[in-house]
UniProtKB/TrEMBL annotation:
PANTHER family named in the record: N-ACYLGLUCOSAMINE-2-EPIMERASE (PTHR15108)
Protein name: N-acylglucosamine 2-epimerase
GO terms of molecular function: isomerase activity
GO biological process assignments: carbohydrate metabolic process
Domain of life: Bacteria
Keywords per UniProt: Isomerase
Family annotation (InterPro entries): 6-hairpin_glycosidase_sf (IPR008928), 6hp_glycosidase-like_sf (IPR012341), AGE/CE (IPR010819)
Family membership: Belongs to the N-acylglucosamine 2-epimerase family.
């Protein structure tokens, strides 16, 4: 393989696909020009199926628009969409206690509030990225405030409704890992020490509690002190989620001049998770595995969702940037060839989100409350910049 030519081809592809396919699709079918914000519940051809708005996608979309503006091209339509969506977030998406809703109507009336704080995490990165794009410092301050409120919600007993009864003592991977990425994004606009402190705390928790060498796996749920609990739920491995965590840690290692301990930790998680996730029969990253190889409880366990493939594309490029090892370029080639052979919709644009294990389309809608303009455009932007970094390093 001519790696230089390979990376040049992919860099061009990412940029063209983002600017000519993904962003135009959502600008045409997603942007709510009347009320502000973005719709995500759209059918294969972009037609609106449901006007309910996902609150975490308001933040995700605003982030993507500003992120593309900052790293791909100074497209004023993208910047305006980011601002419109952030205005919608500020006007409609916060309850009186500061905790954000999960879903609202098209015109901003609350529908549902959940025990999670992911709406807050995505609103925070939207504000920080928009601060970079617009030069308006006030959005950086808003981002840090949302981040601190999020930590307060998580640490205040009783503020968030418990997932289980008090007797159940568990800690989950998802909030630990997402705080790394959020703090990393905010650190581009703020030098508040709470950000690096949170990154260090999250990484230490992942290493101490969630990484289980006896299974060569990072588990989704563990006991208060990292105990392995032998139930269907707590044996769960989410390979895509773990691979996303791996590149979050690689990104942090890079900011610390490729700190060896962090790099090794990230590569270990990536390697473990690739081995669990890569489907040797059909290709692609499978949804869920059981760390004891028992049958997985979740009904979608053997499906192929869009986002784990995206995270694996990013992680393989980061791993190659970190190590220069050909294995990671070949890993990128395998996941990319499978992904691009099955997910893109050549007739209507954008990507399908939900495939059966063998790559057949399970349902053709382009969006819902969980899929929309985030993982795919973020992958293309991040992968474009990584290809460029690698090429610059190669000289």
């Amino acid at each position: 393989m001519d790696i230089k030519k390979y990376l040049e081809t992919w860099a061009k592809s990412y940029k063209e696909d983002l600017t000519q396919n993904i962003m135009p699709f959502w600008m045409k079918y997603g942007v709510d020009k009347k009320n502000g914000g973005v719709y995500t519940c759209v059918d294969r051809d972009g037609s609106l199926m449901d006007t309910t708005k996902s609150v975490w996608f308001q933040g995700r979309f605003a982030f993507v628009c500003a992120y593309a503006y900052n790293h791909i091209e100074k497209n004023e339509e993208w910047l305006a969409a980011a601002k419109s969506t952030i205005d919608f977030i500020e006007k409609y998406c916060f309850d009186n206690d500061g905790h954000m809703y999960f879903s609202i109507t098209h015109d901003g009336r609350p529908l549902r509030k959940r025990r999670y704080v992911f709406s807050e995490t995505f609103a925070a990165i939207a504000m920080s990225e928009y601060a970079l794009a617009s030069g308006d410092r006030s959005y950086a301050d808003k981002a840090v405030k949302i981040f601190k409120d999020t930590l307060r919600f998580l640490s205040t007993p009783g503020f968030l409704t418990p997932k289980f009864e008090p007797e159940v003592k568990l800690q989950g991977h998802s909030i630990v890992m997402i705080l790394i990425n959020v703090a990393s994004c905010l650190r581009l606009v703020s030098d508040d020490p709470i950000l690096t402190r949170q990154i260090d705390e999250s990484i230490e928790k992942l290493k101490k509690y969630f990484m289980h060498p006896e299974f060569k796996a990072l588990l989704e749920s563990v006991g208060p002190n990292g105990e392995f609990i032998d139930t269907n739920m707590t044996r769960l491995i989410n390979p895509g989620h773990c691979i996303e965590t791996a590149w979050f840690i690689m990104e942090e290692a890079k900011t610390r001049n490729w700190n060896k301990d962090l790099t090794d930790m990230a590569l270990t998680i990536f390697d473990w998770s690739w081995d669990w996730g890569w489907d040797k029969s059909y290709g692609g990253i499978i949804n869920f595995r059981d760390c004891r190889n028992l049958p997985v409880q979740d009904y979608s366990q053997d499906m192929k969702f869009w986002w784990p493939q995206c995270e694996t594309i990013i992680a393989s490029l980061y791993a190659y940037l970190a190590t220069g090892e050909d294995e990671y370029i070949y890993r990128h080639q395998r996941i990319s060839e499978w992904t691009y052979a099955h997910f893109p919709d050549t007739k209507y644009g954008e990507w399908y989100g939900y495939l059966h294990r063998d790559g057949r389309v399970a349902q053709p809608a382009k969006g819902n409350l969980f899929k929309g303009p985030f993982h795919i455009p973020r992958m293309m932007i991040k992968s474009y910049t990584l290809c460029k970094e690698i090429l610059d390093k190669m000289g």
